[in-house]
Design goal:
With 396 residues, the protein is α/β, with parallel strands linked by helices. The protein folds into three domains: 6-76 and 278-316, no CATH class; 87-262, Rossmann fold; 321-387, no CATH class. The protein has helices at residues 6-13, 28-43, 58-68, 79-84, 100-111, 123-137, 151-165, 207-214, 244-254, 264-275, 279-298, 308-316, 329-338, 340-343, 352-360, and strands spanning 17-21, 48-52, 88-93, 116-119, 142-145, 182-185, 199-202, 226-231, 321-325, 348-350, 364-367, 374-377, 381-382, 386-387. α2 (28-43) packs across α11 and α9 packs antiparallel against α10.
């Protein structure tokens, strides 16, 4: 997309070996961009590609094969390996995760010594659940993780989690001396974190996202099966995060397996079945997206030519910006003067839609000018709950 130095990057990629880790099918516009790039790199520049994922729907596999051309080699785990990774018992329950029944079960599990993972679809919902769980099990036993913390606070939280619930460090006391029993999080917990919980309580989500959440439970295969509980209620605000049709398809696939062990050889059938009702429309949408990317990006982006419109397309990929909480503004201004590289650790990401709403509410105040300009969010922030927006949220 004509970013500085793109000619050198493409030259390096020519004939290169590339790894695509955890491709997902539910974000079709972004997938169209990725597969168009893969088609260009493999077909025009001779690159070789390894694509790997815990969830590979047949529609995605077929689309990837078409982008690469030919019939790629397939690598799958042996039956013996799959048998070694039977770790969970699935439960699909027809209630809201904020219900009194679920909150009581979370309290019971935590009080019994289990490490409990609670995953909500939106930040606002996660904050409410965190407050409810904290009242039940105490402030020293709960922590909250989502995308609306400063970089510094999120890093600190992730390090504390690694000490307390890491696959190889379970049971250690975190840096602040706490023994957290319950983590309330959004889907940020699905990637990067090598954590191992005893039980999961989750909002509904696409099948791939749910399976990633399952993978944060009994990750170290400590013996026996651990419960993963999926709630059927899909809150209206979460419709902006996950399409109701994709969520309903996932629930329909999982219901017959409720109360039974999750076998790895069933997973492929689940992800295929979840996409079967929408396979035709999904494939059509992907083909249109790839054709548009090929026309508007790949074929016009030649070395040493100027295409300013591509910069706008690049920015459109990221529905977000960063603000500074009011309580952090003085420190941020000081760091901009004295240690500018460290200033980034005080920024909080929000979506573009939230930014516009906050501007209309006059909750964003511009500061600085030029390269050091920033916006201050006149909203509550603390290291336990993160930034507290007073408008409906649609991010993670």
């Amino acid at each position: 997309m004509r970013l500085p130095g793109h000619e050198a990057i493409l030259t390096d990629a020519a004939g290169g070996v590339l790894v695509l880790d955890e491709l997902h099918a539910y974000d079709v516009p972004r997938l169209a961009l990725i597969l168009s790039a893969v088609r260009h790199l493999a077909g025009d520049l001779g690159a070789k590609v390894l694509a790997m994922s815990a969830t590979f729907p047949a529609v995605l596999s077929e689309a990837l094969c078409a982008a690469l051309g030919g019939t790629p080699a397939r690598i799958t785990a042996s039956r013996r390996t799959q048998e070694d990774f039977v770790r969970h018992t699935l439960h699909v329950v027809d209630r809201d995760m904020e219900s009194a029944e679920t909150l009581a079960e979370i309290e019971r599990r935590a009080s019994g010594g289990e490490l409990v993972l609670v995953v909500a679809s939106t930040v606002a919902r996660a904050q409410r659940l965190f407050e409810a769980v904290t009242r039940a099990v105490g402030p020293d036993s709960t922590t909250l993780l989502h995308g609306r913390f400063t970089g510094n606070d999120r890093t600190r939280k992730e390090r504390a989690l690694a000490a307390r619930a890491g696959t190889r460090t379970r049971g250690a006391v975190s840096a602040d001396g706490r023994r957290v029993a319950v983590l309330v999080a959004t889907q940020v917990v699905e990637v990067s974190l090598d954590v191992d919980f005893d039980v999961l309580f989750s909002d509904p989500a696409p099948i791939e996202a749910l399976l990633q959440r399952f993978g944060r439970v009994n990750r170290g295969r400590r013996g026996g099966l651990r419960d993963v509980v999926v709630h059927s209620h899909h809150p209206e605000q979460a419709h902006k995060v996950y399409s109701p049709a994709i969520v309903e398809a996932a629930l329909a696939v999982l219901r017959p397996g409720s109360g039974r062990a999750v076998y790895e050889w069933d997973v492929q059938g689940w992800v295929d079945a979840a996409y079967a009702p929408i396979a035709a429309s999904w494939t059509e949408q992907l083909a249109k997206g790839m054709a548009e990317v090929d026309r508007a990006v790949v074929r016009v982006n030649r070395p040493l030519e100027s295409h300013p419109e591509l910069a706008s397309k690049f920015e459109e990929l990221f529905d977000g910006c960063e603000v500074i909480p009011e309580s952090k503004a003085p420190e941020y201004e000081r760091l901009l003067r004295e240690q500018p590289l460290e200033a980034a650790g005080l920024r909080v990401p929000i979506s573009n839609g939230q930014r516009e709403r906050l501007r209309r509410m006059r909750r964003l105040v511009p500061r600085g000018s030029g390269a050091t300009a920033f916006e201050v969010a006149m909203l509550p922030y603390d290291e336990l709950r993160g930034l507290d927006l007073t408008v409906p949220d649609d991010d993670i």
